[in-house]
Amino acid sequence: MSAIGTDAIEGFSATRDTARVTRDRLRVGSAVLLLAALVGIPLVANDYWLNAVLIPFLIMSLTALGLNLLMGYAGQASLGTGGFMSVGAYATYNLLLRLPELPLPVSLLLGGVISGLVGIVAGLPSLRIKGFYLVASTLATQFLLEWLFNQYGWFSNYSTSSSISAPRLAIFGHDLSSPTGRYFLTLATVVVVTVVATRLVRSQTGRTWMAIRDMDTAAAVIGVPVSAGKLKAFFVSSLVIGIAGALWAFAYLGTVDARSFNLDRSFQVMFAIIIGGMGSISGNYLGAAFMILLPILLDHVGGGLFGGAIDPGQLENLQKALFGALIVWFLIKEPRGLAALLSRAWTQLAARLGR
Amino acid sequence: MSLRKQKRIMSRAIGLAALVLSAAAIGTTASAEDAKTQYFPLATFRVGAYASSGIPVWAGEIDYFRYINEVEGGINGIKLVWDECETNWEVEKGVECYERVKAGKNGSPVPIFLPHGDPISKALTEKSVADKIPLVTIAYGRTEAIDGRVFPYSFPVVFSFWSEASSAVNFIAEKVGGKDKLKGLKIATVYHDSPYGKETQVPLAHLAKTYGFEDIQIPVPHPGNEQSAQWAKIRQLKPDWVFLRGWGVMTPVAIKTAAKVGFPVDHIVGGIWSGSEEDVRPAGAVAKGYLAITPFPAGANFEIHQKLKKYILDKGLSDLKDPKSFGSVYYNSGVDEAIVAVEAIRTAQAHFGVRPINGEEAQWGLEHLDLSEKRLAEIGATGLQQPLKLSAKDHEGGGAGKVLQWDGEKWNVVSNGWVKSDRDLLLPLIYERAAAYAKEKGITPRDATN
Asked: What domains appear along chain A, each with residue ranges and CATH number?
């Protein structure tokens, strides 16, 4: 988990070099420590922490990662996130239901691939239009997909309420339906996808994306395959988002319908990457933490401090206002997002320690 | 950087991690001291898009709980304590609230959880089975959950969406002079195009086949603030009756648009969630004569309301912000819900002993709940709540609604008492669906003889 945007800041002097080494060591160390903590958590955490805090946080991070590949790295703004999540969820559901012999990871991946293919179709307009116009066309995808899953009963196996609910979650006969099982399924998926995504953005593909993002005309002139790059970004991004959608449906909520993946969800993910940091891998986790964990924290603190003293409705509104104010404050402090803020702090810390 | 420094950093980091982990563990250590009170968490939505309909519901609920505590000294002496958790009517926050409260409070367990939101109840269906906490969803939630053999911890008590549709048809039959007169009628259902709105398609198709009326289905996309096309279609098809299953802003817009195209408003029967004061007031004068079927008849003249007024409202103990809402459909729905919860706990206490009841015991209490006419009269809820008898095979129990008519000021009951639904006709279909669900999920249905 390292911030990509800061790799460019490289000093030539000896001190800055040691600072960089220390900083990288600190980073790797903290990442390993964090991972160890995440693996160890089920030993001490109760259902509340797993079901209501950690699982949604990890899945939201994964979704943000998916969108960040498209928006932060390839520069293609999209509001279709909720729609792609629903494709992943409904596709995985149908795979699990209709092809029960497939193991869960394969169904999950195939669900993601189907979502990726839908992403390519949704990404076709990006070859001709960009910016706000592209946002409008992805918005159409969002509404179309939501309507589709609500309208046609086949997708939900003709359930009365068009909702889908997870068939038994198991890997090689090992039942994963307990909170711990669902947590590890989520954690493993997130770690694998993060590692792959980190490699990807540092590869030729990633550089193509960044070239398109920074100036697509110039990229085309120097021979970067712009159209293929854009569609590839839509494919990979939708694939990751699709997997996240399936996890959201089956590892987190259990039963969902198309409403769980509405436009609000798309906005929430977009805000997460803006706050966390566009074009950064660690930013996705920070942004997701901000969007998912902070309101819960505020709620606990608010309830603990003023519970009973203030009218519950008022207290709720106060928390919303405070959350909004915090977003504004953070964006003023660092418009490039929490990842940049943290990276700056790391650099300062490393410089002080390395000296 | 020296080795010592590195070590120091490491030890600090480990310390920090330990702190985080210990914070995580706090939630698990509830005090084991024997509780003398019954915890009852409330998942509320006081902010968000539907807050205006939610606020009177909690008022009804909390007022009844206070009445039980203040006047009756608790349920057989066990006082109720509750706290609120805000869901915004959002499924994620609802799940968070459920997880937060499910372990109980100060050693007092959670007997019943009221999800207050259709998607929330669906997301909790399986979690509640694992945690053994019954979900009570009055007039919403999964219809198939009536089959308690497959859904042991889901209780769509009183009035499911299927019963709603069937009762509405039976009310129309009452108006036209008998079920045999339904033949050849055209009944159009104008519904909110969402999973909730589509729930009644299957039962209506079945009833249309049985009684020989024509079933027309017209969807309105969310949120439904523009319905010219739908009502133009109504004008063209000329149905005899319209069954309106709206949600939020859709209902007043439908009433206004119906008036505009000249469809008689007294031939529109609103569904459960199209039948509150909040649904008709915004439509203004044209709503006069509008009908709605509901399990929560409005009115402040029931016996229990006299008691609530005397002991709670007049003493300034009420949770009600706007005293005009006293006796409104939503306020009464809160009272109804509280009555069902309290009586279920009472039933469980009679079996397991007078003490705080946990979820598993409350599930037994619910499945053996028998709200007879006699018991309802003792509570003072005659006419407000219908007689209710639940069992493992039947988690709904009632299945009847009253039809209200808006006179421009308030709702008046116009149906002949409770309009029963054709449960005998629909239950086999519901059991079939529950069995299909059980097959899909690999659930072995419970033995219903216990």
From this structure: 5-354 (1.10.3470)
How many contiguous H segments (helices) and E segments (strands) does chain B have? 15, 16
The domain B37-159+299-400+432-441 is placed in CATH, from the list 3.30.450.40, 3.40.190.10, 3.40.50.2300, 3.40.50.880, at 3.40.50.2300
Mapped to the 3 state alphabet, what secondary structure does chain A carry? Answer: CCCCHHHHCCCCCHHHHHHHHHHHHHHHHHHHHHHHHHHHHHHHCCHHHHHHHHHHHHHHHHHHHHHHHHHHHCCCCCCCHHHHHHHHHHHHHHHHHHCCCCCHHHHHHHHHHHHHHHHHHHHHHHHCCCCHHHHHHHHHHHHHHHHHHHHCHHHHCCCCCCCEECCCCEECCEECCCHHHHHHHHHHHHHHHHHHHHHHHHCHHHHHHHHHHHCHHHHHHCCCCHHHHHHHHHHHHHHHHHHHHHHHHHHHHCEECHHHHCHHHHHHHHHHHHHHCCCCCHHHHHHHHHHHHHHHHHHHHHHHHHECCECHHHHHHHHHHHHHHHHHHHHHHCCCCHHHHHHHHHHHHHHHHHC
Q: How far apart are CA B405 and CA B269, in angstroms?
A: 9
Structure tokens at B129: 């089975």
Instruction: Check residue A164 and give its pLDDT.
Output: 85
Using CA atoms, how far apart are residues A335 and B21, in angstroms rounded to an integer?
A: 32
**What does the pLDDT read at residue B6?**
55
CB contact under 8 Å between B198 and A259, yes or no, is: no
Taking CA–CA distances from A50, the nearest residue in chain B reads B99
Residues of B in contact with A51 (CB under 8 A): 95, 99, 127
**Residue reference for tokens 């950690």:** A54
Size of chain B in residues: 450
A103, A172 in Cβ contact below 8 A?
yes
Low-confidence ranges of chain B (pLDDT < 50): 1, 18-33
Cα gap B110→B120, rounded to integer Å: 17
Token output for A325: 């104010």
Query: For the whole model, what pTM was predicted?
Result: 0.85
Between residues 247 and 306 of chain A, which touch chain B (CB distance below 8 Å)? 252-260, 296, 299
Cα gap B50→B86, rounded to integer Å: 12
Q: Look at strands B186-192 and B135-136 and give their pairing.
A: unpaired
Question: Looking at this protein, which amino acid is placed at residue B34?
Answer: D
Kindly state the tokens that stand for B82: 């509750």
What pLDDT score was predicted for residue B447?
A: 81
CA-atom Rg of chain B in angstroms: 24
Between CA B271 and CA B139 the distance in angstroms is 10
Task: Indicate if B161-294 has the same CATH topology as B37-159+299-400+432-441.
Answer: yes
Q: How far is B324 from chain A (nearest CA, A)?
A: 19
CATH for B161-294 is 3.40.50.2300
Ordered mean pLDDT values, 10 residues apiece, chain A (355 residues): 42 56 73 79 83 92 96 94 95 91 91 96 92 92 90 82 77 82 92 93 94 92 93 96 95 85 92 92 92 88 77 81 88 87 85 75
Facing B1 at nearest CB: one of A22, A177, A317: A22
Domains of chain B, by residue range, sit at 37-159+299-400+432-441, 161-294
Q: How many CB atoms lie within 10 A of CB A16?
A: 17
Q: How far apart are CA B407 and CA B423, in angstroms?
A: 31
A309 touches chain B (CB under 8 A): no
Show residues of chain A in contact with B127, CB under 8 Å: 51, 254
pLDDT of residue B1: 46
In this complex, the residue of B14, B142, B195 whose CB is nearest that of residue A150 is: B195
- How far is it, in rounded angstroms, from Cα B417 to Cα B443? 39
DSSP character at residue B139: T
